[in-house]
């Protein structure tokens, strides 16, 4: 249900042609994010990582959008500035809403929820369940990568002076990191082949019955999306 609500919210975000709808969505996001600890800090980190994308999008519209100009010049577009700010706002809200889904849903549940949502494609002989299991396996492998990187950094704590020395140290970490990851992946594959319950079964996530509160929240979310669409 969260994926369906997110999809509907994305449609509202990217179909918005006026700031009021985007402002209401942002205010709703602030209310929802207030219940997630560390949400604002994580959001600032993600926005900081994407700052060049936002800047490039703004400049692209500023220089190449026809229409009214800025400061009497022929190469700065006022309409492009407004359009660029609108597109940046849409991208920002899309990222923030996706983060909200990631904060409130376990990666495994999200993977199998996506597989369940795409299950009608099995009529076209598309292996949706296998793809869901593969996504869940990849998500299970990410923490292993973080653990191995942290372990290698602890072993290389003595390298602290000079940016060139740090680059060489990071380059030297690539080979042992690959060997460690190959070993961990081999152990994981052997465990799965032996029948070990390393990953939760996908069907278990869908045997849970929806509660009344879940249906109420889903109905409230759909009503809110329809209200935003009408603006």
Characterise the protein shown here.
The longest helix is centred in the middle third of the chain and has 28 residues, at 128-155. The chain has a domain at 1-105 and 209-231. The two termini are 23 Å apart. It is mainly alpha-helical. The chain has helices spanning 2-14, 19-33, 39-49, 51-64, 78-104, 107-117, 128-155, 163-172, 174-193, 212-230. Helices cover 73% and strands 0% of the residues. The chain is built from ten helices and no strands.
Strand content: under 5%
List the secondary-structure elements in sequence, H or E.
HHHHHHHHHH
Rg estimate, integer Å? 23 Å
Distance between the termini: 23 Å
Q: Which residues form runs of ≥5 with pLDDT under 50?
A: 201-206
Number of strands: 0
Which oligomeric state applies? single chain
Dominant shape: globular
| Helix-strand category | mainly alpha
Instruction: Give a short account of the largest sheet.
Output: none
What fraction, in percent, of the residue positions are helical? over 70%
Q: Can you give the mean pLDDT? A: 78
Number of helices: 10
What attributes characterize this protein structure?
single chain, 231 residues, mainly alpha, 10 helices, globular
In short:
The chain contains ten helices and no strands. It has 231 residues and is mainly alpha-helical.
């Amino acid at each position: 249900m969260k994926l369906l609500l997110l999809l509907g919210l994305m449609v509202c975000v990217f179909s918005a042609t006026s700031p009021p709808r985007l402002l209401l969505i942002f205010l709703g996001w602030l209310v929802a994010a207030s219940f997630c600890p560390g949400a604002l800090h994580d959001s600032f980190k993600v926005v900081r990582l994407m700052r060049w994308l936002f800047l490039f999008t703004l400049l692209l519209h500023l220089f190449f959008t026809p229409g009214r100009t800025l400061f009497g010049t022929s190469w700065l577009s006022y309409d492009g500035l407004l359009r660029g700010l609108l597109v940046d706002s849409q991208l920002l809200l899309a990222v923030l809403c996706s983060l909200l889904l990631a904060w409130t849903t376990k990666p495994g549940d999200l993977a199998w929820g996506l597989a369940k949502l795409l299950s009608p494609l099995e009529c076209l002989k598309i292996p949706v369940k296998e793809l869901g299991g593969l996504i869940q396996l990849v998500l299970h492998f990410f923490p292993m990568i973080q653990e191995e990187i942290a372990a290698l950094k602890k072993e290389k704590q003595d390298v602290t002076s000079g940016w060139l020395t740090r680059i060489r140290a990071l380059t030297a970490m690539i080979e042992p990191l690959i060997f460690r990851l190959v070993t961990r992946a081999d152990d994981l594959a052997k465990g799965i082949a032996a029948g070990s319950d390393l990953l939760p079964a996908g069907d278990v996530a869908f045997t849970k019955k929806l509660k009344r509160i879940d249906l109420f929240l889903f109905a409230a979310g759909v009503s809110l999306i329809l209200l935003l669409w009408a603006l």
